[in-house]
Amino acid sequence: MNTAARPRGRRPGNDDTRGTIRDAAKALFSAEGYDRVSLRAIARAADVDPALVHHYYDSKAALFVEALLPTEVDLAEVHRHILGGEVAEVGQRAARSFISACDAPEVNDGYLWLISQGEQQVTRFRAVQEFTARELYAPIAEHFGHEDAVLRGQLAAAATLGLFASRNLLQMRPLSTTAVRTLVRTTGHALQQYLVDTW
């Protein structure tokens, strides 16, 4: 029997390290939300050196996407698409991107699980709201020079995630049967005000 002591300190990277980090992140995000969790806290929970977290993941947002979201999200590409056309249509493009993504069956099912199942459903939903506000929408508001970009991001996240919950989870009628083009048009007006317009 080998009785050699385990080396002290954080364990080095190995084939399971990425999965260990991802699982630790999922547990922390589910329990504490997005904003309160740091990469250093995830490293502690995974029992790895913080440098390994940065080795596998470029940012907290990238780790959140892999750990908790039901689909891959390239935030840089999403922002390029939303900001790449006429300024007057930013809200419409943002609304169409969100609604189209959520209408994919695997995304719809994944989001429904996040916000409706288990003891941590409230904090998981809060984590998704915080991520959506800070990483998806706030950078758009920042692009237009708004100093209150985080607030604007929160308003946009409330609008789109509220729409998703009302339409897909609660199945509120007539909202759940309203044509997508109508939802894009009306939600797009709200997102244009939140993210682009000057108040």
UniProtKB/TrEMBL annotation:
SUPFAM superfamilies attached to this UniProt entry: Homeodomain-like, Tetracyclin repressor-like, C-terminal domain
ATP-binding keyword on record: no
PROSITE patterns per UniProt: HTH_TETR_2
Pfam families: TetR_C_16, TetR_N
DNA-binding region per Swiss-Prot/TrEMBL record: 38-57
InterPro entries per the UniProt record, alphabetical: Homeodomain-like_sf, HTH-type_TetR-like_transc_reg, HTH_TetR, Tet_transcr_reg_TetR-rel_C_sf, TetR_C_16
Gene3D superfamilies from the UniProt entry: Homeodomain-like, Tetracycline Repressor, domain 2
Annotated keywords: DNA-binding
Start and end residues of each HTH tetR-type domain: 15-75
Family matches, as PANTHER family: HTH-TYPE TRANSCRIPTIONAL REGULATOR RUTR, TRANSCRIPTIONAL REGULATORY PROTEIN
Name of this protein: TetR family transcriptional regulator
Native species: Propioniciclava soli
